Structure formats: C-alpha cells, structure tokens
Amino acid sequence: xxxxxxxxxxxxxxxxxxxxxxxxxxxxxxxxxxxxxxxxxxxxxxxxxxxxxxxxxxxxxxxxxxxxxxxxxxxxxxxxxxxxxxxxxxxxxxxxxxxxxxxxxxxxxxxxxxxxxxxxxxxxxxxxxxxxxxxxxxxxxxxxxxxxxxxxxxxxxxxxxx
Length: 162
Ligand code: PNS
Known about the structure:
Bound molecules: 4'-phosphopantetheine
Distance between the termini: 49 Å
Low-confidence stretches: none
Order of helices and strands: EHEHEHEHEHH
CATH class: Alpha Beta
Strand content: 15-25%
Largest sheet: 5 strands, parallel
CATH superfamily: HUPs
Number of helices: 6
Shape: globular
CATH topology: Rossmann fold
Number of domains: 1
Number of strands: 5
Strand order of the largest sheet: 3-2-1-4-5
Helix content: 40-55%
CATH architecture: 3-Layer(aba) Sandwich
Mean pLDDT: 95
C-alpha cells in the first residue's frame, strides 16, 4: 500500500492543488491531504472550512482522505505509516523553498522521500494568495478554484464587507 501525504495550507484549495491530487490518485494507493494548523499565520479560512472545501472538491476521489496536522510534517507522515511526501512544483520560483524543505525533512527522517509533481501548464501561475486577492476585489475566480470554493470565497468577502 503506497500512501502519499500531500501537505499544505490550502487557504483555499485551488484547481492547481486539485490537479496534483487527481494525478496523484493515478500513482498512489492512498492520498492523504494534510492541512497545516499554523498558529503563526492568519488564514482567510479556518482549518475546518479548509478541510470542508477540500472534502467537497475531492468527493469524486475514493483514494483521498483529508486531515489536519500540527507540528512537524515528518511526524505526521510517520503516524500515518506513510513514506512519501508529495509536493507540487510550479515554477523555478518554488524550487529554492521546496529544495530547502525537502532537505530538512530528509535530515529529520531519511526514510521519508519527498516526490515532486510538476503542476500542469494551465495552473503554473496559480496560487491561493493570488486567488484571494482576486476574490477580495471582486475578480472572477471561475476555473481557478473548484466550484464549492468559488461560492465560499464570494460568501466570505460579501460577509466581510457587511
Ligand atoms: O501550502 P504551504 O503553506 O506552502 O505549505 C507548507 C507546509 C505545510 C508544507 C510546510 O509549512 C510544513 O511542512 N509545515 C510543517 C512544519 C514542518 O515540518 N516544517 C519542516 C521542517 S522546518
């Protein structure tokens, strides 16, 4: 049983994330999408909201579980009996940070392998931050985020403006 842990903030999940998750389902027996609980960051959506959006967007994928974690990623991976951390790589700009993370994680636990998937060209420019900025100023996010997330973004910003 080959399990991959796909970690991130997912604030919110985008079509770029979903593309990686769908492709990972063709490679791995199980894909655990792990949402980081990070008290140092001020997210737009709560962990609960982010997990609900991920669960909705991956409903058609039987191999996917959505969970949250805090602390070190390698500890969570070990607790789930997994050996693979899966990350998406968009552009050269991602490389430095991802190289650093993969190196630190390998130092922490050499038995855990970080595997990268190149993001599809359609989503190479896409990020959760860009989506939030767009939505905040009333821009259209259709095709950039799953349908359930589009609705949540609209709702979030219309509520905030009240
Ligand atoms: O979507 P993000 O914010 O780029 O995801 C970053 C994430 C969650 C992959 C990264 O911050 C992480 O793994 N955090 C857990 C703490 C940890 O294990 N750090 C690595 C050693 S410093």
